[in-house]
Amino acid sequence: VMRYFDERCQGSRRLSERAKAVIPGGVQHNLAFNHPFPLAITQADGAHMTDVDGNRYIDFLQAGGPTLLGSNHPVVRQKVNEVLDSCGPVTGLLHEYEVKLAELVCQSMPGVDMVRLLGSGTEAVMGAVRLARAYTGKQRIIKVGGAYHGWSDQLVYGMRLPKTGRMEAVGIPRGATGNTQECNPNDLDALRSQLRWNRLRGGTAAVLLEPLGPESGTRPVHPDYNRQVRALCDEFGALLIFDEVVTGFRIGMGGAQAYFGVTPDLTVLGKCLTGGYPMAGAIGGRKDIMMMLVGGIGTTAKRAFVGGTLSANPLSCVAGYYALLEAQRTDAAGVAGRAGDRLRKGLEEIINRLGLPYVTYNMGSIVHLQTSGVLLLDTSSLWKLFKVKDEAKRRKHMMEEMGAAYTAHGLITLAGSRIYTSLADTDAVIDDALNRFEDV
Ligand code: PMP
């Protein structure tokens, strides 16, 4: 594996060495673990990427999720270019595509009557939490299962990454996380107790969760979980926020909420919303809650403030509109989902035939491949596991080694453990990938 990087990736090595002087860690993203060094990409289209040294890869990273249509989709690119020609990337006023994108999102997502476009998933989560507090007049937020909801002070709380098992987040002011609580996925009794405890102390503004389970299914939830959390929220007067940054449009145009038939009060969107173009973030939800962004219906009353100079710029909006329109027209979630099924079945067959201690499962185009130890079903067993001496280090090492081995065999994945398929993944691409996985 290391010979591959030595012999075939000199251009990437040189660029990443240069980067280290001016970019902390030598790369802005740590998505692919970048071991032994990040690849410098010069071309990406559909299911493939090419690096600066001319090596070609099957792209299962898909930028961490947003490019459901495959990389650099030509229809979206052309429409973006038309808008750039006519008015450039930003005006600060209204643009037709802003309305069209909002209409399409509202039509698609059962829980979204209105939508506010923002800059990123992180911002959208912050906004949704603020709205929940403004609407309910309550403070506490319960988040489920050590999920990543962006890097805001109040929510990065408890993020002990599988990489090291340590609290990675420092620099958070004392008190910022005082109203953030966490509970294990699938443990409805614990959630009920937490809601009950909170009820005696001012209540719970919202339960915030990823509907496939934390880290979008790395710790999966049982099929009825969302419905039961919905019922608990109603019982205790808390809002239900679905973080659909990963699942929105990727599970289907109606997101995980349509799939599970559970309607949240607020929905956070990102990633696929703009098809990989910048400013991927939005809050959507019930009209009466969303109207608090302008001061409440018919009143001059309280306003929950969110902002952003570049929010809803024409470039992002036209990209989002055509990315979603294409996704709808081509049933991208269905096609990518079937590619995910084919890949998972093939991986399962390889794992069983070779007798490997690995686990693979998928929800459509979101495929998990666990090669670094047992599958963990809740957060506390994760934390417990990391109390075992050197276990976190061992896992990180294994993930890095696996990630590098995949790369050397022409496969780019998310940290060697998550795979995003796209509309561009034909049967031929998947079968090619399976051969490579088997070699690894
Ligand atoms: N929520 C979830 C579930 C995510 O996966 C992510 C990003 N991976 C975010 C929020 C944050 O989104 P962004 O990176 O756009 O800030």
From TrEMBL:
Q: Recite the UniProt keywords alphabetically.
A: Aminotransferase, Pyridoxal phosphate, Transferase
Q: Give the matching InterPro entries.
A: Aminotrans_3 (IPR005814), Aminotrans_3_PPA_site (IPR049704), PyrdxlP-dep_Trfase (IPR015424), PyrdxlP-dep_Trfase_major (IPR015421), PyrdxlP-dep_Trfase_small (IPR015422)
From the UniProt record, list the coiled-coil ranges: none
Q: Which cofactor does it need?
A: pyridoxal 5'-phosphate
Report the leader peptide range.
none
What is the top-level taxon of the source organism? Answer: Bacteria
Transmembrane stretches in the record are none
Example of a GO MF term: transaminase activity
Report the family membership. Belongs to the class-III pyridoxal-phosphate-dependent aminotransferase family.
Protein name listed in UniProt: Aspartate aminotransferase family protein
Per the UniProt entry, what species is this protein from, by scientific name? Hydrogenophaga luteola
